[in-house]
Each structure stands twice: as structure tokens, then as C-alpha cells.
């Protein structure tokens, strides 16, 4: 994350949420699964992510899976990567959280475009 006194941040922070299935370790800690992402404003590229899966290993795996994808290209590639590489109980919740994350990104894009037309 880049910050400075006179510099505008080059990234945004977005979160996507979904309900966890029963019987998951993370469910004893959280009711919902959250995926957060730091996203480059200009290119829509996921710079870093975190999620509320129970183990650090799972969290790091999701980081590897998602980092580098551009949300400007939609969610097809990140979702395909998820389906190809993740086979845990939280698969459906991760998919829903990713879709929610993308929905939040689209809201941010609409907000930016609305601000630009006002100027």
C-alpha cells in the first residue's frame, strides 16, 4: 500500500462476504467468510488479499490464487482458478465471497465514473 503526505493512494480496499457452511473450523470463529483485497485503482489488479479461512496455509493459498488477477477482466479467471485448485468445504462460500467482492468493485467503478461526470 503506497501512502505519502502529498501522494494519493494508488490502491483501494474492498471486502466480499459469504456465509460459511456448517462443520467448518472457521465457522466456530466467524459466521461469515470474508475475502479482502487491495486493488490497484488504474488497472484493477489484485495486489494482495486476505481471507478468514481458519488456517494460515489456506489463507496463503488464497493469496497466491488471487494475486495478479485484474478485476477489469471480470471474475471468470479467478473463479476458474478457484474451481481448478481449491477442493475444501468452503468452495461455495469462497465463490460467493469472490462474487460479492467483484460486486463491490463494480460499485466503486460506478462511483468513480459518477464523480468524473460531475466534474
Main CATH class: Alpha Beta
Q: What does the main sheet amount to? A: 3 strands, antiparallel
Low-confidence stretches: none
Radius of gyration: 15 Å
Alpha-carbon distance between the two ends: 27 Å
Number of domains: 1
| Structural category | alpha+beta
Reading the helices and strands in chain order gives: EEEHHH
**What is the general shape?**
elongated
> At CATH's second level, what is the architecture?
Alpha-Beta Complex
List the total number of helices: 3
Strand proportion, as a percent range, falls in 15-25%
**Main β-sheet, spatial strand arrangement:** 1-2-3
Mean pLDDT: 88
> How much helix, percentage-wise, in residues?
40-55%
Determine the CATH topology.
Sufe protein. Chain: A
User: Would you report the number of β strands?
Assistant: 3
Describe this protein's structure.
This protein has 119 residues and is an alpha+beta fold. It has a single domain (11-109), classed as Sufe protein. Chain: A (Alpha-Beta Complex), CATH 3.90.1010. The protein is 41% helix and 20% strand. The protein contains three helices and three strands. The protein has a three-stranded antiparallel β-sheet with strand order 1-2-3. Helix 2 (76-85) packs antiparallel against helix 3. 22% of the residues are buried. The mean pLDDT is 88.
Amino acid at each position: 500500500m503506497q501512502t505519502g503526505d502529498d501522494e494519493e493512494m494508488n490502491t483501494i480496499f474492498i471486502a466480499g462476504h459469504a456465509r460459511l457452511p456448517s462443520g467448518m473450523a472457521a465457522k466456530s470463529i466467524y459466521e461469515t467468510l470474508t475475502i479482502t483485497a487491495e486493488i490497484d485503482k488504474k488497472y484493477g489488479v489484485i495486489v494482495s488479499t486476505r481471507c478468514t479461512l481458519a488456517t494460515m496455509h489456506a489463507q496463503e493459498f488464497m493469496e497466491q490464487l488471487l494475486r495478479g488477477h485484474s478485476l477489469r477482466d471480470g471474475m471468470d479467471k479467478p473463479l476458474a482458478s478457484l474451481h481448478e485448485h481449491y477442493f475444501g468445504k468452503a468452495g461455495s462460500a469462497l465463490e460467493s465471497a469472490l462474487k460479492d467482492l467483484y460486486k463491490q468493485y463494480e460499485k466503486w467503478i460506478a462511483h468513480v465514473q459518477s464523480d468524473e461526470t460531475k466534474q
